[in-house]
Amino acid sequence: MNILKVYWAFVKKEFFHILRDKRTLLILFGMPIAQVMIFGYAVTNEFNGASLDIYDQAKDELSGQLIHHLESSGNFRINRILNSQEEIEDGFKSGETKLVVVIPKDFASDLSSSQDVTIQLLADGSDPNNANTLVQYASTMIRGFESKYLGKEKSPFQVDVETRMLYNPQLKSAQNFVPGTIALILLIISAMMTSLTIAKEKETGTMEILLVSPLPPALIILGKVTPYALLAFLDAILILLIGYFVFEVPILGSLTLLLIVCFLYLLVALSLGTLISTVSKTQQDAMMRSLMGLMMPSMLLSGFIFPLSSMPFILQIIGSAVPATYFIEVLKGVMLRGVGLQFVFWEIIILIGMGALFLGFTYKNFKIRLE
Amino acid sequence: MSELVIDVNNLTKKFNDFTAVDSISFYVKKGEIFGFLGANGAGKTTAMRMLTGLSKPTSGQALVLGLDVNSSADRIKKGIGYMSQKFSLYNDLTVKENIRFYGGIYGLSRAQIKSKTEEILEELSLKDVAKKLVSELPLGWKQRLSFAVAMVHDPAVVFLDEPTGGVDPHVRRQFWETIYEQASRGKTIFVTTHYMDEAEYCDRLSIMVDGKIGAMGTPGELKEHYSTDTMDDVFLKLVR
Q1: In terms of CATH architecture, what is A50-150?
Q2: Please, what is the end-to-end C-alpha distance for chain A in angstroms?
Q3: Which of A24, A59, A264, B207 is the most buried (most CB within 10 A)?
Q4: A208–B contact, CB cutoff 8 A
Q5: B8 in helix, strand or coil?
Q6: Which residues in chain B have their CB less than 8 angstroms from residue A6's CB?
Q7: What is the per-residue pLDDT across A301-349, written as a single tens digit (0 to 9) for each?
Q8: Are residues A235 and A322 in contact, defined by beta-carbon separation less than 8 angstroms?
Q9: What domains, with CATH codes, occur in chain B?
Q10: Tens-place pLDDT, residues B56-71
């Protein structure tokens, strides 16, 4: 029997399944695009035209200049000028105001006599990320105003802190989300979809027919995962392209290395998918196992959304067992910092080890079932 | 090849302490329709799984097509057909694609698949729906197509695991006509069923009880032995 021809017959049939199921197609092509777009545009720490309330107690020329200075960046929009302490909360409660700047009465006189000046910034802490960013940005602008007004000569011993964010100077969130999204999408397609499609054959009873046929079990699995591997790889490239052209996420390192690592991670995810399918008899079971066992840890404990280093020890341990942790690390290294193989060598070795381990378990489970 | 297509001696399967199949022995001759009966959980499916190479025997011997299931499962698989109680067709593939796929995994050549497809479509008068998805076919058609697909590689023996579960009497009758036709062409049919009227259609049958073969013979012999008129009563007397 010509093994290649049999394999091809199998792969062809699998493509029919995929192309005829709208839901599968939607997950394969709709989801990656939607996810990058949502993460890129909606989930963002950047802000534009945030509404600002000003409670100007001084109401003189200098405070007017400060307000003008704040507005001049284009990132703040003055919403209301407040006249009393009581009005401060109204803006927050209505949700319109993101930040209130309180300028003290003696602003001008204190500043010119080099006394300490306290400008109060009030932010809506119910959205901590946004509040932090706004306060930081406003502080920087106020310091800028101060030095412009005072000039250098006033305080010769001033220590300036200059912060520069390397590799992602504008702290664009897309630079973080693109690697994370690739990791998630590859996992969804390679692990979840393959475990689902294998479980489906079991559910409908066709798996039994396949096992009675002369097909070697390894060929059945290979035939089922090949189309998903190809499509997942296409998705990875699609996300990279969207990242590059829409969100200007660079690929500073070697593209070949990047694609090889994507492929390696894909194999790890596929081995996880087949492992799940050896224990799941139904699609629902496979779905639950993939969601709880793979998607959740990969999303929360991989350093994609929350940094791993600030987690409790036990969560760090779990996080270090998640393949996505290493994959995202490599992606960020190669894409954003432009590092070569020697800097991500260790992560790659771990990924290879994980893949081998999962495949070993799959093989063992498969054998037991046949005994 | 000997006239015995299936030859089983003291075949046993144990799962830990539980003996699912307890030293059964039987044979099936070429061209026979052999009914393999038994209550739920009596060990029918386990025995059948061993014969089709899905499961390894704990002890005993079973020859299928003259080959030992322990050592030659791979070669046996090429010579047998199998149809399970669930329909083995893919609902989202067309009639033609299903035939082509199963022909493909049994290693048939393109020309063979083509002529086989024509033959099946002709025989089951499915020409008009060849390009329709299997999900759109009525149950009876699906079932006969399922059977035809199980025979796509011209196996000498075909195993049918409760092939008529959940279909109406008319469709069952039709289905059995197809089985008879194949048997008349020299194919050996090994079939499990819960319907005692179907048991009457078999040339010979065995009834499994608690992992052992409780009775074996032609339907006539069995009815005579248990001095009853129907297979129903034979079955009930044995299983009680």
Answers
A1: 3-Layer(aba) Sandwich (3.40)
A2: 25
A3: B207
A4: yes
A5: strand
A6: 104-105, 107
A7: 888 877 888 888 999 999 999 999 999 999 999 998 888 888 899 999 9
A8: no
A9: 4-198+207-239 (3.40.50.300)
A10: 899 999 999 999 998 8
